[in-house]
TrEMBL record:
PROSITE patterns attached to this UniProt entry: HTH_TETR_2
Name recorded for this polypeptide: TetR/AcrR family transcriptional regulator
Domain HTH tetR-type: 20-79
Annotated segments matching region Disordered: 1-21
Key word Transcription regulation present: yes
Keywords assigned: DNA-binding, Transcription, Transcription regulation
Pfam families linked to this entry: TetR_C_43 (PF21597), TetR_N (PF00440)
Tagged with keyword Transcription regulation: yes
DNA-binding region range list: 42-61
Amino acid sequence: MHDNDRRPGQEARPKRADARRNEDTLLDAAAAIFVASGVEAPVRDIAAKAGVGTATIYRHFPTRADLIIAVYRHQVEACAEAGPALLEAGPTPYAALGHWIDRFVDFLVTKHGLAAVLRSDSAGFETLHAYFLDRLVPVCARLLDAAAAAGEIRSDIDAYELMRGVGNLCIGADSDTRYDARRLVGLLVAGLR
């Protein structure tokens, strides 16, 4: 059967799912390289980690800014989706909150590098930041509400305020080997009890 012989919609879904998986693999690889080497890392390093050619990356993301924005959005979505999954997995809402905050910290380490590059386009950066807040504050709020309802933490904790505090603790952590932001974030989360 030739492509022209195919009825509309036939085999379209598997290709889209494959394309999505390939893009996810590429974005995961880019995020890992960005964490290890910074957002100016060579595209060939990202391609090697993803197991694709550099042309594939440029076909999906013609500019470095396109790739950076896609990584940012991909990581926001992964962090947003992790919240409900962790809450369901347990063992307690407080444990789920702690695991989610760990993922959030991982995201923030990458985000700070991404944000530095994106700040040159202030309108674009503001749009991405609003997207970040719209997707992640409700996830954090749900985790906090569940932990408070279970009697594991105080009930007067605002999700935005907690996320802002965690974010502030992460600033500069990637450039100062004497500073362990993850340890301090752990102390903050322990203080929610």
